[in-house]
Amino acid sequence: MRAVDEGLASCHTCGRVESASHHRCGRCGAALHVRKEASLQRCLAFGFAGILAYIPANVMPIMIVNQLGIEQANTILGGVFTFWRMHAYPVAITIFIASVLIPGLKFVSLGLLCAAAAGKLRLEGRLANTMYYLTELVGRWSMVDVFVVVILAGVIQLGNLMTIQPGGASLAFGLMVILTMLSAHAFDPRLIWDRLNKEPI
Ligand SMILES: [Zn+2]
Fold it and tell me: Options 1.20.140, 3.30.2010, 1.10.3470, 1.10.287; which CATH number does 38-198 get?
């Protein structure tokens, strides 16, 4: 037996369980709903917007270094190759994982979760849970290179000797991280349990 079958919903704010027909929590007044409204649509809309921002984030320069009057623009992947050629393998690998691999995997994971919740794909419950948990977890740690560029731009201002400016990609990258976080937040993981309940594996 599930609470939802009895028409009960739990409050997201205070945890009180009461009849979903009340629409508002009797204790704290927060909105009460059994499932997030239009969860899949919002998750997919934010996800696609995030993919659109992922393109300029990788194509445009993330950092413009001006050293003794010579301007050099670096894309994220360009930076990875530069560090690789300098034999700074841990730095190159870290940048590649944090800025290219993880955002890409996040889009794939959210896409698979949406497909599973919509019944287009059969996903084992425990696997779906782990995927959702990891997607939520990495969200707040994805801004690393935006922070690095912002700190470098703030610290390295040596006039004609050397200046560092953030490029267009840093804005696009920040936007992409925020959009994927909104996408993961819009997704209601309970939809997967609903699907598993309907067609148990
Ligand atoms: Zn409440």
Answer: 1.20.140
In this structure, are residues 76 and 58 in contact, taking their beta carbons and an 8 Å threshold? yes
Rounded distance from Cα 10 to ligand 1 centre (Å): 8
Residue corresponding to tokens 């996903």: 123
123 CA to middle of ligand 1, Å?
A: 32
- Residue ranges per structural domain of the chain: 1-34, 38-198
- In angstroms, what is the span from residue 35 Cα to ligand 1's centroid? 15
Q: How far is the CA of 187 from the centre of ligand 1 (A)?
A: 21
Q: Which amino acid is at 157?
A: Q
For the chain, count helices (H), then strands (E): 8, 5
> What's the gap in Å between 180 CA and the centre of ligand 1?
28
pLDDT average per 10 residues of sequence, the chain (201 residues) = 79 85 85 82 93 91 84 86 88 85 89 86 84 82 73 76 83 89 86 75 52
Predicted local confidence at residue 201, as pLDDT: 52
Distance from residue 62's CA to the centre of ligand 1 (Å): 44
Give which of 34, 28, 12, 197 is closest to 119, Cα–Cα: 197
CA of 17 to the centre of ligand 1 (A): 8
For residue 53, the model assigns a pLDDT of 93
Q: Determine the distance separating the centroid of ligand 1 and the alpha carbon of 80, expressed in angstroms.
A: 48
Whole-model pTM over 0.85: no
Looking at residue 105, its amino acid is L
